[in-house]
Amino acid sequence: MSSANVRLDPDAFKPAEARRLAQKISRPSLSYWQDASRRLRKNPRAMASFVILVGMLLFTIAGPWVWRVGPAVQDVDQISQPPTFGTAATALITEPRAPWPGVTAAPPAGDSANPLTAVTNLRLFEPATTQGIRLVWDPLPGVAAYVVYRNVYDPASGRALGLPLGETLDGEHVSYEDRLDLTPQRYWYSVVALNGDGVESGVHATLAVDTVRAVSADEAVARGWAQSSENLKAGDHIQLPRHPLGTDYLGRDLLARLMYGARVSMFIGVVAPALFILIGIVYGSAAGFIGGRADQALMRVADFVMALPFLLFMILLKIAFGIGPGESGIFPMLVALTLLSWPSPARLVRGQILQIREEGYIAASRLLGARTAYLVFRHMIPNTMGVILVALTFAVPSVIFTEAFLSFIGMGVSPPTPSWGSMCNEGIRTMLSHPHELIFPAAFISVTVLAFNLFGDGLRDALDVRMRGRE
Question: pLDDT for 422-431, tens place per residue?
Answer without folding.
Answer: 888 888 888 8
